[in-house]
Amino acid sequence: MRTDGRPLPNQMVVAYGTSTSPWLCAGTGAVAIDFSNAYGQLMQPLPANNRTVVYWYDSCLLYKITNGAYPYINIYDTNITTDVQTLGNAFSSTAVETHVVPATIYLKSATGTGIPGALVVVFDQPTTGNELLAFNVTGTDGSITPVDYRIYPPATSQLPPTNYYVVAYYAANGTPLTWQEIQQAISSSSSHSVTLQLVPVFENTFSIQRTVTATEAIESFTLSNILTTANIVVVLSSFGPAPGVTLSYSVSEPECPVTITQHHRHQQLLATRTV
Questions:
Q1: Quick one: which of 62, 63, 64, 6 has its CA closest to 36?
Q2: What digits encode the pLDDT tens for the residues 219-247?
Q3: Domains of the chain, residue spans
Q4: For labelling alongside 64, which of 6, 21, 200, 269 has CA 20 to 30 A away?
Q5: Cα–Cα distance between 261 and 274 in angstroms, integer?
Q6: Which residues of 225-242 are buried (b: 16+ CB within 10 A; e: fewer)?
Q7: pTM, rounded to two decimals
Q8: CB within 8 Å of 212: residues ≥ 6 apart
Q9: Nearest-angstrom CA–CA distance, 170 and 45
């Protein structure tokens, strides 16, 4: 199995027979279940000429054990004619492509300038990160390539067709973050903790459709307009000055000023991003 010509490991592959039961995700009468190894190859051969479906990561298993509470993600299916025509015929080919695409996400200001030093977190909405959770710090051009290291240990972006949520954070002191700071904060022990004060500066959603073909995914799936939603609200527990006192302060980072105002009546923190 491949995506954009590259191996796609840690995927679940099911061969279905002709029986009408039991039901397993997209079909019935499963006769074999396999997984792809680090090279995108099947760990064991599957029965020949059976309907073959490739499921993203463990989405089919999660669907099964939660009785359908979470959706499965079908990324290749020999019963779908366009899959066979555009991604390869699993009955006659030694390798097939899948509906998985590499992505580059850019954080840009209203003028189109990249915003460096922001921590960007991307996760799939339906399972809140069970099927994909990626985070990185934007580079000098304001971009990250989302990689979930549970699925593809090499630093290569692979995103299946589903809905996504993306949120960006910036350091409260207004200085660009570095990946080293994130690593130190994650790996620090309780006795030597490293605390990062982060301010959410952006949130939005995007979607990758299953109709994206292998040809369309050769270069990258670039999301350069995700800054269209500019306002966010952060609600914290009640605290602060006495009634009748309004406290406000501001935090700024390059191209992305953030103003946080506390309103005594509701005792909330309202974070408004302005560009």
A1: 6
A2: 333 444 333 333 222 222 233 333 333 33
A3: 2-87, 103-228
A4: 6
A5: 13
A6: ebbeeeebeeeeeeeeee
A7: 0.75
A8: 99, 101, 161, 221
A9: 48
